[in-house]
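Lab notebook, bench 4. The sequencing result for the construct came back, and we need a structural model before the next group meeting so we can plan mutations. Quick request posted to the team channel:

Model the 3D structure of this chain.
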Amino acid sequence: MDDKGWQVPAATGDEETHRGLARAAALLLLGGLCWRATGTPLAIVVAALVPALVYAVLLTVLARGARPPSLLAAAFLWGAVPAALMASTGNNLMQTWMAVTSSASDASVVVPRLGAPIVEELAKGAALLVLAALWPARIDRPADGIVYGALIGLGFAVSENLLYLTMAALQDGYTGLLRGAFLRGAVYGMNHAVFTAMTGAAVGYARAASSRVAATFVPLAGFATAVAVHVLWNTIASDAISRMLCAAPAPGGACQNPPPAHLLFFSVPLMVALFVGPCIAALLAVGRMARPRLPDA
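Done. Here's the predicted structure in token form:
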């Protein structure tokens, strides 16, 4: 890294070489996603994949700037395959270690709320560092980082939802699958995208930073923000939504199945909007920050 921080020359090789590398990465990761979905019923795969793809298409259409489709696809698929596998492995190791050193009950509370956000944002954020290293001209402003970060998060949600929607289908058949697809895919299907977009915005800003200090600490600040918001979701919003959807007639009572329609279609989406909305507004404001672009890699 020189005095311009992340303003390093583009990676060696011509544009076609970099495009070929992006295509190869996308195809390899697509094969990984197919392998990961092997054995999962087609209805569950579709329910997990379609909402994320709709969000991804809307994001890439609405976001300004020409970005290679193969690199966009590779970012999405990184979230769905390597990031998901790394996060699952890390969470399991953390759960096992804490169950041994503390107790299984402590592990079941602490790991999902505090440990998982760190592990998952590290796994997703690693792709942004790979992008900055191999395709430096493609992520040199906050808007680029937001787009790639959001796509990584959407891919991660696909892999995560393969598991959750399978559980929903086993518990309540197609009704449970449809309800799970609506909630996890549509209502809060953008959550992971928003978290990782925060890291991406910071990486994009740092790529064109004029000082070494900013180039070093802005990405760390972005990552810390992503983790903090993720922790808030896991510890406050997610628990509140679970209690709301349970709709038990009395404390400690059995949950209603299905949950009341006004909770499912109004109250929960409103709560998610109140949580995610300000984050999206902040990202839009940061994304409008103009940074000098480097020559195409």
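The two ends are 17 Å apart (CA to CA).
Will bring this to the meeting.
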